[in-house]
Amino acid sequence: MKVQQISIFMENRAGRLAAVARLLGTTGINIRALSLADTSDFGILRLIVDKPEEAKKALKANSFTFNVTDVVAVQIPDEPGGLASVLEALQAQNVNVEYMYAFVEKCGGKAIVVFRFDDLDGAIGLLQGAGVRVLSRQEVLSL
Amino acid sequence: MKFLQPLQETMSREQLRDVQGERLRAVVARVYRDVPFYKRKLDEAGVHPSDIRTIDDIVKLPFTTKEDFRDNYPFGLYAKPLSEIVRSHASSGTTGKPTVVGYTKADINLWADCCARTLVCGGADRTSVVQVAYGYGLFTGGLGMHYGVERLGAMAIPMSGGNSKRQLMIMRDFGTTHICCTPSYALLLAEVAEEEGFDLRSLGLKAGYFGAEPWSTSMRKAIEERLGITAIDIYGLSEVIGPGVSSECLAHRGLHVFEDHFFPEIIDPVSGKPCPDGEKGELVFTHLTKEGLPLLRYRTRDITEIDHGPCDCGRTFARMQRVSGRTDDMLIIRGVNVFPSQIEHVLLEIEGAEPHYQIIVDRRGTLDDLEIQVEVSPTMFSDEVKKMEGLRKRIAHDIHSTLNVTAKITLVESKSIPRSEGKAKRVIDKRDMN
What we know:
heterodimer; A: alpha+beta; 7-stranded antiparallel β-sheet; 5 helices; 38% strand; B: alpha/beta; Rossmann fold; GMP Synthetase, Chain A, domain 3; 11 helices
């Protein structure tokens, strides 16, 4: 149920984002979802890619500082209040969202949102109990 | 008032040499007897106190270094029992522990004399109002100059550093005639005064005593113009005594070394051989009179040259030029000594931190800016912004509590700091010191 996310440390200077994008592009890796958290000095680029192992290899060879974090991809009804109902279910059980972002594409009329929780396993159980569809790794990679 | 102690300050060079020789004999005999470190050091060098007859014999003595302070931390170099020591000060060491110095009652008196001589060198007298804006505390600057002001019989205003608006208010209301601070702080005061809309030149300020950090000729000009004063360059280091080691006079031809107490030599830092007048080398001091912590041939790591020729002011003491550099990588930032090794030490305490860092010193506006760039290693990296911000704050906090200097910490990508063969280029100093 968990999906591997690759997070890359980036200095806040021109061309760094392009450098990562180009590297992944030339390695034939497709980005499925991404989010960029930024501060005044640095940024953290979070990616879900179709070939995580190859991406890691390429990043390592090019001296990027990165790590791999487990996240959860959740299917959410693409309609007003769809996200709110999922978040409310989590809040009711005091599960803390560290960060979240949406997928690039939809899946059968549903939106897909990526979450990082403090208690990942607890959150998965909770979401499934509340009838929210959590995507498997295979499903995410084949999107 | 021309001299504080005319007999000493204007004695003939011949007479001075006799005094120095006699004092050197006494101090060598004393440290050999009372300081196990020196007994061992002299024995190893094959020198016996009876080999020292005139001041010229000083070249037979071994050197003392900052590492000797570290190895004998805290009180191992003291030549008197702690019952005779009335005060200790400390400055930065190269790693972790500070360099500790001790004074007997007689040392405090001698120090007050030397700082009072300094004040007279710059034209102060009993009627002067002297604002001491050096830090009071373990740092020798504040208390050293304070005692000098009282010895002179002038009025001391013990402001310590910081709080510029308050400094300016007191300066105006108390009628300050002389100020003691770092040169960069003098420029900051000028800036704050301009913002506050009052002209420092309209006050009764006559001269300032500036030291504790390197400064340039252009800074000196700016200080003299913006404060409307004469700038006096003063020099000192805690290992020797603090401020009061040497001072410029109004002739501005170098800094007179108070060599009846602190005997100066210039040596080639590599060979250790003495350099003739006018040749640049490392400044070395031997204490001739100090009781608590007398040092033989202490290597300051400061680079300068010396001139024994006569000066228009009438003082016969040799003059050293403004310090032009260091033989080690010590930085002076806002008056505080900083060694790159201290920063490395702090970083290595942080889990997962790699010792890949670079120190960038700049002078934006008037005060020194310290930036430390630290490479983020995979083990330090987290994909959560709050953890990365926490890491940065922790480094900044640890640096501040160790160095007593605020640094801007910038996290940079791994391998982004240039690697060089052999010794890494750790420091980029963008300050203009010429």
